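User: I'm new to structure prediction. If I give you an amino acid sequence, what do you actually give back? Let's try with this one:
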Amino acid sequence: MKAFKFSLESVLNLRSQEEDVAKNAYAEAVAFCQRTMLSLEAGLGELEFLQETLSTKRQGSSTKDDQLVYLQAIRQQRSFCDTLTQRLVRADQLKKVRFDLWMEARQKTQMLDNLKSRHKDRYNSEVARLDEKNVDDLVSSRWAMVRRNAVLQSNEDLRGSFGCSSGSAGSGMPEGTEYTF
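Assistant: Good question. You get back a string of structure tokens that encode the predicted 3D arrangement of the chain. For your 181 residues, that looks like this:
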């Protein structure tokens, strides 16, 4: 019997490629989200440092202009952190969307994989059934041949016990004529 061939193999390959693309897009979204998170943590650390420095400047003998410079730097750092927070929210949303797309592509691929598996199981059971049938036919034909030979041998033994021959030149009977009693 010919080898198993899944008729939707090209579709399965296409779906697998789509799943790989979706998985890679999700991985990129996760990496972007992590980079944004690290940037935000660094920005918040810098903001905290500036606030601590301003606090020490206020307690010590610093000029008003020096404190204004630190206040301006704190405002800029807060604005930067707010921007990073918004970027992080968008990156997290993008990550969720990409994950959903990946899971959808994966589900489609798994459906075709399951279908292929069922078809292959059905094919293998049909091959096993045909093999068993062929073995049964072979055994039956050998048994019938042995049985036929036994019947022929039995007939020859009967003819010999009654003094009949299967035919001779002097008997006038054609060779191969059988007598049944």
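You can read the tokens as a compact description of the fold. Here is one thing that stands out. Residues 88 and 152 are 94 Å apart (CA to CA).
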